[in-house]
Prior knowledge:
Layout: H1 9-23, H2 27-50, H3 54-75
Helix pairs in contact: 1-2, 2-3
Amino acid sequence: MIIAQKPNIPIIIATVGFIISYFTAGMFQAIGETVSIIALIIWAYLEISSGVNWFRKLLGGVVLLVVAYGLFNTFSIAQPLR
C-alpha cells in the first residue's frame, strides 16, 4: 500500500509558479500565476485521464472545476446584480 509518493512534475511547477506570484509583483506575478494555472490544468487532466484509482480521478475533476470557476470569475465581464 502506498501512503505517500513524490509530487508529479506539474504539481512542482504549479507550486513554484504560486511562490513566484506570491512574493513578486507586476510582470513576474502575472507569469507566476499563469504558469501555476496552466500546470494545475495539466495535472488535473492527467489525473482524470490516467489516475490510478477513482479518488485521484475525482480529485483531478474537482481541481479542474475549481480552476475553471476561478478563471471564469477572473475574466467575467458580467456585472453583479444590485
